[in-house]
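Priority: medium. Attachment 1 of 2:
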């Protein structure tokens, strides 16, 4: 059996759906995703069981789910009429969140993922106007055509890229940011925030995990996250950090003792910054524009 359970970045959708299913089964669950287990199935469970450091990944998935759920609720309450979920994977928010029936929700992913999801959820009724589009975001022409269509039909769009940007190269993230910024009704964008210290922390990820993720490596590691996005017309309106979120929900990061000791020694002069090393940002369009 190969020690590389992820053969394509699309497999990560099955992987994280397993963690949402596991959370939903807890007596103290922070959210309930009743469809996650069906979607994750054996494929997702196999990845979750074999991946190194799975407990840490599960912690991230659960807390980012809570953060993004809140961003969506707030956006809808503020008048957002369209959610554009890029790289939607096996997300089921249109079925599990309390949403207005008039809300338009557009999921975008690889054709195989869209076909799988359509088949598995054929008998389920979403709580809003749900559409699925099979578009490869790496195809610039197809991506821009979709963005043009959404922008022409919406008044206020929230864009989601949950667990997507990290797998892109810097030039790909730059192109995506520019394309989103060019559509005036795309007013907010949710994506992960990574601090300069976070890149250093990733060195402590074991060799086995790096080997297992060889077919879906993390590529986006900007030295100046804020500066990178400011140059492309986006600034953070709000950032919610996972450490603080974990404390709020009484869910500390499941780090082994030796790793906690390493962090205390290596980052002893940066403890405050370490609390804000990773999170999820609600971005807004810069008033000054890109460039």
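Attachment 2 of 2:
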């Amino acid at each position: 059996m190969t020690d590389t359970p992820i053969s394509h970045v699309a497999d990560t959708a099955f992987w994280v759906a397993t963690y949402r299913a596991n959370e939903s089964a807890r007596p103290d669950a922070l959210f309930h995703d009743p469809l996650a287990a069906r979607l994750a199935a054996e494929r997702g469970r196999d990845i979750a069981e074999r991946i190194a450091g799975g407990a840490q990944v599960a912690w991230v998935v659960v807390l980012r789910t809570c953060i993004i759920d809140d961003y969506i609720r707030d956006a809808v309450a503020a008048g957002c009429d369209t959610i554009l979920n890029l790289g939607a994977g096996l997300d089921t928010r249109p079925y599990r969140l309390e949403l207005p029936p008039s809300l338009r929700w557009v999921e975008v992913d690889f054709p195989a993922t869209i076909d799988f999801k359509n088949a598995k959820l054929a008998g389920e009724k979403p709580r809003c106007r749900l559409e699925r589009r099979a578009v490869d975001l790496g195809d610039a022409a197809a991506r821009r055509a979709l963005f043009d269509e959404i922008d022409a039909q919406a008044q206020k769009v929230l864009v989601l890229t949950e667990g997507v940007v990290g797998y892109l190269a810097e030039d790909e993230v730059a192109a995506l940011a520019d394309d989103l910024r060019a559509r005036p009704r795309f007013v907010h964008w949710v994506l992960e925030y990574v601090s300069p210290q976070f890149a250093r922390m990733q060195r402590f990820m074991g060799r086995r995990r790096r080997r297992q993720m060889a077919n879906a490596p993390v590529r986006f590691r900007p030295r100046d996250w804020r500066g990178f996005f400011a140059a492309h017309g986006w600034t953070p309106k709000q950032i919610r950090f996972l450490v603080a979120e974990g404390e709020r929900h009484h869910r500390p990061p499941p780090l082994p003792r030796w790793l906690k000791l390493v962090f205390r020694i290596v980052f002893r002069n940066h403890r405050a910054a370490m609390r804000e090393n990773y999170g999820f940002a609600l971005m807004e369009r810069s008033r000054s524009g890109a460039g």
